[in-house]
Design goal:
Blueprint: H1 3-15, E1 40-48, E2 59-67, E3 73-81, E4 87-93, E5 96-103, E6 107-108, E7 110-111, E8 124-126, E9 131-141, E10 143-150, E11 160-170, E12 173-178, E13 182-183, E14 189-195, E15 198-206, E16 226-230, E17 232-233, E18 246-248, E19 253-260, E20 262-275, E21 286-291, E22 304-306, E23 313-319, E24 322-332, E25 335-345, E26 350-357, E27 363-369, E28 381-386, E29 404-407, E30 413-420, E31 427-433, E32 436-437, E33 443-445, E34 454-459, E35 463-470, E36 481-485, E37 498-501, E38 507-513, E39 516-523, H2 534-537, E40 545-549, E41 554-560
Parallel strand pairs: 1-9, 10-19, 20-26, 27-34, 35-41
Antiparallel strand pairs: 1-4, 2-3, 2-5, 5-7, 5-8, 6-9, 10-14, 11-12, 11-13, 11-15, 15-17, 15-18, 16-20, 20-23, 21-22, 21-24, 24-25, 27-29, 28-30, 30-33, 31-32, 31-34, 35-38, 36-37, 36-39, 39-40
């Protein structure tokens, strides 16, 4: 469930709560009620995982996506709140498959059936008229890290962004990624909360407020060398390999961390922005730099930022030596307009950089089914996903009746084609741009001229795989993560990767699978998305269940649960 949708559901539910007295478990309203004799009931209890204490005021969201008998996708989202005994109930759920998420202040959010935070939950399968009772969700109390950031003299530093960092799988490797952030106050103090149990690297990045990004605010002499604060890991190092990790237990508060920000010789990048779209200086333009290559830890940082003066000039300060993109970004009429230039910073300031904001080319194309068979394409959306982190352009509009589309203002760069809303029984078969196949190879968009057209073909007779996962005692394994993977060199192609969790009976089902050779894996204890890590997968590769998916085939398998 997307953030905005979930926020709306929560807001609507809160309006119905009686804040004056404890209430019985909430019965959520249904957006599309099932027939009375088909409605299902789901009930259970929320407990503290450490003490077993019932938790009141927990928010439980039941979110389902499935296909109707006519093959149309259907969504249904409901919310309940636990009572003083931690109990909750949904009385009017439609038959189908659901995920259930639970949140409470002071605890880490979690899915039903998950074996801890950041783990995949159990899918709930509801048959017409079924009563599913006795569900138990055990929430983990949040961890907290508090501390202080100081300068070279031990004085407190305000306006420092502090982030808890962990290595996570991403596109075939492990990347160091933040799990939230906090800013230091006037005493240099910070508090990181809502942390799942685990080991964290804590990083501090100086982000002063006020005139830092204003080109009119300059040091006493721009010719003098400048020592600037650089991103620093606890207790005081730039290199994550020499940083100390902080162990956070469930419900624990780790106090007293002190991070001394490091200084290094830094440089300035000066230039101006030409906005060819507006035809004038627009001071709402944001200018920032990002490294052209990720550092060894896999991080891609926004290093510095600036706004424009009245003449369209900018100054980026505190820049370390390296190879960067200087990017100018301007939002107008519902979309971002971008410009960027390559800049290399070595041992001196960089002057007279010119960044031109221009409207990107329009990509036109068409989505059709194989042999032009009739199918409902009203839910299909086409996306161009950048292969490197950067702002997106305008959203992809709906397809026209003939399947044609146009994506306006596409910024220059490298992209991969993504398609959502593919109708039941179909799969993404091919994508060509002009004469070039781009589904696997990706595509390059240049500023000058519009390539195209982009032709996307949906293949008929997609395959399906279903089955059951068994544990060591040959019993059905509920909440197991089942992943369908193609050969290793194709695992970055999202349309070939499928992942689901087993339901309360250990069953799973996958559809919309392109014909081909695959391997199936099932884990009980695994962090979500960990199969993207090549090192994690090495000991399991030979233990996957090989499977061939043919056109319109329905394969049935029995999988053994793999130990992590």
């Amino acid at each position: 469930m997307t953030g905005p949708l979930r926020f709306l559901v929560l807001c609507l539910a809160f309006l119905r709560l009686d804040a004056q007295a404890p209430a019985p478990p909430q019965e959520p309203a249904q957006t599309a009620p099932a027939k009375p004799d088909e409605r299902c009931e789901v009930s259970g209890q929320v407990l503290d995982v450490l003490t077993g204490t019932p938790l009141a005021k927990a928010e439980i969201v039941l979110h389902g996506v499935w296909q109707t008998s006519g093959g149309e996708p259907k969504e249904e989202t409901s919310m309940a709140r636990s009572d003083a005994g931690g109990r909750f109930i949904f009385r009017a759920a439609s038959p189908g498959k659901y995920d259930m998420e639970v949140e409470r202040r002071g605890y880490v959010s979690q899915s039903y059936g998950a074996r801890g935070p950041n783990r995949q939950g159990t899918t709930l399968s509801l048959n017409p008229g079924q009563r599913l009772t006795g569900l138990v969700v055990r929430l983990t109390p949040q961890g907290v890290i508090t501390g202080k950031v100081v300068d070279e003299d031990g004085e407190p530093l305000a306006h420092v962004q502090v982030s808890p960092m962990r290595f996570r799988p991403f596109e075939g490797s492990r990347r160091l990624m933040p799990g939230g952030h906090a800013r230091t106050d006037d005493l240099g103090e910070f508090r990181l909360h809502s942390l799942p149990p685990g080991r964290y690297y804590v990083q501090a990045v100086y982000q002063p407020m006020g005139g830092m990004g204003d080109p009119s605010v300059r040091p006493a002499s721009d010719s003098e060398p400048v020592e600037g604060y650089v991103p620093t890991f606890y207790p005081g190092t730039q290199d994550v390999a020499t940083a100390a990790q902080v162990d956070v237990a469930a419900g624990a508060e780790v106090r007293g961390l002190q991070i001394k920000l490091l200084q290094a010789r830094t440089y300035r990048i000066r230039g101006r922005v030409i906005n060819t779209v507006a035809g004038r200086v627009e001071r709402r333009v944001q200018v920032f730099i990002m490294p052209r290559e990720r550092d060894p830890s896999g991080m891609m940082w926004l290093r510095s930022g600036s706004m424009l003066d009245r003449k369209g000039n900018f100054v980026l300060r505190g820049v370390l030596p390296g190879a960067y993109y200087v990017t100018a970004r301007w939002f107008d009429q519902g979309g971002w307009y971008l410009g960027r230039e390559k800049v290399d910073v070595t041992s001196s300031d960089v002057e007279d950089v010119v960044v031109t904001i221009a409207k990107g080319p329009t990509i036109t194309g068409r989505v059709r089914t194989e042999d032009d068979a009739s199918a409902d394409l009203s839910k299909v959306r086409v996306f161009l996903r950048p292969t490197e982190p950067r702002p997106m352009g305008r959203p992809t509009p709906e397809l026209k009746e003939d399947g044609s589309f146009s994506i306006e203002n596409v910024a220059p760069g490298e992209y991969r084609v993504r398609v959502s809303g593919v109708p039941a029984g179909y799969y993404l078969k091919s994508a060509t741009l002009g004469d070039n196949e781009v589904l696997e190879a990706g595509l390059t968009i240049e500023q000058a001229g519009a390539p195209g057209p982009l032709e996307i073909v949906l293949g008929r007779c997609a395959g399906q795989v279903d089955g059951v996962v068994l544990d060591e005692q040959q019993q059905p394994a509920a909440g197991a993560s089942v992943v369908l993977l193609p050969e290793p060199e194709k695992r970055k192609l999202e349309h070939l990767v499928k992942s689901v969790s087993t339901d309360q009976n250990g069953h799973f089902s996958m559809d919309g699978i392109p014909p081909g050779e695959y391997k199936l894996f099932a884990w009980g204890e695994m962090e979500w998305g960990q199969w993207q890590d090549q090192d994690f997968m090495k000991p399991f590769e030979s233990r996957g269940e090989e499977i061939t998916v043919r056109e319109n085939s329905r394969e049935s398998v029995r999988l053994k649960l793999l130990a992590e």
